[in-house]
Each structure stands twice: as C-alpha cells, then as structure tokens.
Specification:
The structure is a single chain. Helix 4 runs antiparallel to helix 8. Helix content is about 35%, strand content about 15%. The chain is of the alpha+beta class and about 290 residues long. The protein has two domains: about 110 residues; about 160 residues, Transferase(Phosphotransferase), domain 1 (Orthogonal Bundle), CATH 1.10.510. The protein has a five-stranded antiparallel β-sheet with strand order 1-2-3-5-4. GO terms for molecular function: ATP binding; protein serine/threonine kinase activity. Pfam families: Pkinase. This is Protein kinase domain-containing protein.
C-alpha cells in the first residue's frame, strides 16, 4: 500500500517558499524549501511541507546527485511495500511549481520530493521524560531500524535530525547515503565525524555496527544534554577512538550498560544488531 501525501495543486501554487538548505548542501546542489500558507507567517505548524530538489548540472557533485536518485528509488520501492518507517510523501513535477518561488535553483531534477513537517524526536529535553518513557521510545527507534536492516539496508547517516514523529509513529528521514548490507561495492566514505564509529576513521566500511554506534552517540548526547565537542577531523578521530566517556545522569543510569555496548570502541564488542537491542530493552526492567 503506497504511503502518499495528500497535497493539492492550489497549495503548491499559493504557498510561500523559504529556502532552508544549509550552505554546504547548496554547494552540493541540494535545495530544501519550506512551504507554508502565506497567512501563517514564520510559524512552523502541521500544515507546513518540505520540498527537496537536486541540481543535476553536468559539472555538479555526482555523489549528491546519485544519492538523490537513490532516495527517490527507495521511497518508491518501500512505499509500495507499505513500510511504516517512511513519512507519507509525494513526487512533484517541477512543472507543477511556480518557478519564481524556487529561489536560486537551477538545472533541477524534474521530480522533487514533498514531505510533511514532522517534529524531531530529540528536540524535546530528555529530562521531561521518565525512564519508562525513554525505554519505550528507544524500543520504537530500534524497531524501525531493525525493519530497515531486515530489508537489507543500512541507513548509514544516522543523526538526531533524522528521527521524527508523525501521526504518533517514529519515522526515518534522508536515505541518500543508505547502503545495501550485502553489497560488495561500498561507496566512498561520506559521514559526519560527530557520529562516526572508530573503525570508520581507519578506513573500514560502514556496517550495522557503525549504525549502532551512531545511534549510541545520538542517545548519549540527548540523555546527557551535552553535545560532543571537537574542532577538526583529527580531533573527532581522537575523541571517538580514545577519549569518549559514557557518564549518564543518575536518573538515566539504567541505560548506561546498553550505551556502553553500543559505543564499544571495537565493533566486535558491540551488540549484534538492532533486534538484539530491542530484545534487551524489552527483557530488562527500568
């Protein structure tokens, strides 16, 4: 069953488009627009949409172009299979849009991806949750990631902003970097140092264990309310390979052993997969 987003042509024509792509994304030819009704001003609400497009210039950044095409393919494939970790979406022809609204865009791929606004799971302070609520949330998160790996894919770009809640369910965003687990050919390393497992700094390919590690970093930062700090790529390597410490606030101490097993420096010492984390969370009492 396809997970199609309901959005009429009038909204596409009447909405105010705000370019929200970061400078680095724009340098790769990636365009991200927020669409809102003019009467809503700058306030983000449930009627807000996001439109993602990619420049396909011949001299453009090919890795970003390939990632955009892959994400479109995966949305089409997984939507037909009815997977619940996807946001509802719709592919919009560039010809359906008011080109005057597409600020700075050129040589856009003819299809753009339209998604509804959804709140980041980790935007809310962890101190507002009980340990039981956090445990339930972690079970939801690892369940959707287990679905993904059962399909034979790594997300390969896990970060806090890629987990959202929509209509009461945890959903995943951004599949441009997704990697087939069984693929013998791995793409060039493209990862955010903040979330990189130690072995990635040594040239090893991404794996289920590196995705486990990335999720561990997301949870560590959220539960401690502290972002890891480093200035250079080398600094990040030293932090992850040598200096990372796991010291949770007393109210969340229950989760420390699980985080230690997700963030072990040697990937062979991490848990096997997301299903194992789920079973461990279910079997242990807060």
């Amino acid at each position: 069953m396809q997970n199609l987003l309901q959005c009429d042509q009038d909204l596409l024509q009447a909405a105010v488009y705000s370019l929200k792509a970061k400078a680095q994304s724009l340098s790769f030819g990636r365009y991200l627009y927020q669409l809102q009704k003019a009467s809503n001003g700058d306030q983000v609400n449930s009627s807000c949409f996001w439109l993602k497009g990619q420049s396909m210039r011949e001299d453009g950044f090919q890795h970003a172009q390939q990632g955009f095409l892959q994400e479109q393919m995966l949305y089409q494939q997984w939507s037909l299979q009815g997977h619940s970790f996807l946001l509802p979406h719709r592919f919009i022809s560039v010809n359906q849009l008011d080109h005057r609204q597409l600020i700075q865009a050129d040589h856009l791929h003819p299809q753009l991806l339209l998604l509804p606004h959804a709140e980041s799971i980790f935007s809310q302070d962890s101190n507002q949750f009980t340990s039981s609520q956090i445990k339930a949330l972690m079970i939801e998160i690892v369940s959707v990631l287990a679905q993904l790996t059962e399909l034979g894919w790594l997300h390969a770009d896990l970060k806090a902003g890629h987990f959202v809640r929509y209509q009461g369910q945890v959903r995943l965003l951004d599949f441009e970097q997704a990697v087939l687990i069984a693929s013998a050919k791995r793409p060039p390393m493209n990862a955010t140092p903040r979330y990189m497992a130690p072995e990635l700094f040594h040239g090893q390919p991404k794996s289920v264990q590196s995705d486990l590690y990335a999720l561990g970093i997301v949870l560590l930062e959220w539960l401690t309310a502290q972002r890891l700090q480093a200035h250079t790529y080398k600094d990040w390597a030293v932090l992850h390979c040598q200096r990372l410490t796991i010291d949770l606030p007393q109210q969340f101490i229950f989760f420390e052993p699980i985080l230690r097993d997700m963030l072990a420096k040697q990937k062979t010492q991490r848990m096997r997969d997301f299903s194992q984390i789920k079973m461990r969370l279910i079997s242990e009492n807060v």
